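Section 3.1 - Work completed
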Amino acid sequence: MSSKSKEKFKETEIGMIPEGWDVRRIDQLGKVVTGKTPPTVDADNFGGDYPFVTPRDMKGQKHVFETERYLSKNGKDLLKSSLLPEKSVCVSCIGSDMGKVVMTVRESITNQQINSIIPTTVSPDFVYYSLLNTSDKIKNLGKQSTAVPILNKTQFSKISVAVPSSEDEINKISKILSDLDLKIELNQQINKTLESIGQALFKRWFIDFEFPNEKGKPYKSSGGEMVDSELGEIPKAWAVGRLSDICDITMGQSPPGETYNEVGEGLPFYQGIADFGFRFPNRRVYCTGPTRFAKEKDVLLSVRAPVGSLNVADEQCAIGRGLASLCLKERHNGFLYYLLRATKSGWEKFEAEGTVFGSVTKSDVHDFQVIIPPESLIEKFSSLISALDEAISTNEKQSRTLTTIRDSLLPNLMSGRIRVNTEATL
């Protein structure tokens, strides 16, 4: 890469770009498609193998490997005019999620909140990064129309981006950025595998009750004594109690709005699930007037819709009213994280109770019933799981560094302020 100070630039409607580059509209890069939703009253339209992409599946990643919902063949056939092949680029164009961008990895359909482009004249990777680079512009365009930000297909199609005239330069820009995203996605896949291992071990020990007995054999299947409890059969010497019996709990409280900033002043502030990443928060807002705190390694629990989602504080932070922070009194928070994951169905019941938007109160959290193993077993599990959790944390920190590098390179590469070397070398 090089910064070519002698490169001549020209003024265009999207700003200064190299003289040899062109300005092209989105609809000149490929076919634009607006998503649709099949009739939800017909359950046969859902539950199959075809990814149904919505803004909820757009979590800052490049590729959408999995979605919350899938369509059946029947649902897909109803919307065949909106079917996207792999390597289509999808952009959220309605609401607070405007400007999010992902790329499909197989045949998919999106809902109507998303406009997509099927690239035909420029490489899909370059189209993806062009749209990612215009994310803020898309958000601003949407705010100009109505109270609910929206960018329709016509407006979306007219968005312009800079395109190098050299296909070699297009491909090299795409490769630099794609290599960074590839490593980020590899870290994400490794972390999901590591967490699955942790969940499997937790299930075997604390749900199936096959933890090692004093002879190192599986407790329950080796004849370990079980007793009745209000939560079903549990091993003898275990107990049923409340979260507050084993945890220090802090309910979040939102500080005054004028104390928020995005320039790094004060403590990181997290309000709710919108700030959550895979395991650690990934959205950074800061606060100079925090009122409630979470310590590093505290478990963050979403107490507003959706109730029960989890993250882990990776540093001291401030928490708003959408969160509670929990810490085992003996500080074995590796166990606590997996315990709360295993009790997710118990939290989800609050979604259906009382109000349209599910929520839990301080007493709900304090009084939430859990099975409590002996402290020695909690300590043994936490010791076993610590290396795994540390690896997840290390991978996540590396991914954040790579994301920062990618985000720094992106506007410079896509505008020609930094150029790649396209000259042949021996």
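Second construct:
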Amino acid sequence: MRIALGRPVEALPINEPPEVSFTMLPPSSTIQVTKEDEHFDVLRQWVPAGGYGVLFVTLHERIASGRAKPHIEVRVNDERVGQLTPSMSQRFFPMIKHLADRGLVSGCWGDITGSAVAAEVRIDGIKANEASTEFLDGPPLTIPPLIAECVNPDDYDITPMRPHLTPLPLCEPQVRPSPPEPPDGSLVRFDKSRGRYNYVAVRRGNRWETTATSDWGSINELMLWDGLAQRVRSFEIATKWAPIDRRSDLRVRQHRAVIRFSIGGKYLAAINVCDNSSIEGEWYTTITDDAEVNLPFGDHANWSDIVRYGEHIQVVDEWQQLGSCR
């Protein structure tokens, strides 16, 4: 699992949410604010040291006098910082008016990019034609006020959160029972990620050699039985083997076909994960990285490699369910 986090500078807004009754417009597409240059005396105080930050802004209908056209005024902390173009404002007017009739100021996310001499502001919010009935007539969407940063975390007043901080009861960790370990030399087949990845493993003494290609996942090249059984839901164990026809044997072309063979006296196994009945197949072997340096191929092989170098090749002809680890 990977968690994708945004840039730290975007984690918290620069200013507090409005103190009046408001609702936040859901995000939609970014719109450039105009005439910020006329209000740089206000914007200067909001330009972060790094030159970029996230803001709460509010949108207000402005009926201009004279020949000026009506427009949407953009404010930060109730101070004008710019406006939307008249044509863009027309796309917000019906929604702003509707929310205002409900006693709600329209808030939305904005951002500021600037320096010591100039700044630009953008907003991100839906337009009137994008607003749903649930948003227009439903409960306001609000953002809680920010908590002032404290040097000592113990200084935070968490009294309002106390009802939500009741510790959960302790639960004993549940360990799935493992099926009995098969005897030395046994071969098992299993899958991971709902059948997306298929493996076999062979017991050699107290360790299991698997067809994993590395040691970075949940299945490693060498594993102990308890560790393997805790990571796998169920196993099939090979109970019957049959010799193969090296020239043409349809059994080895099957998806998830499993064979055993030897090279230089070393006992090995492989599984075919190819699902298109190819002659070569796509075989993953129990050859570990350490053993690979002394063998003609490694953890991945074609059928021609196996029949060229392998001896005593046999295919699994029968499987038996070993047990479930659910």
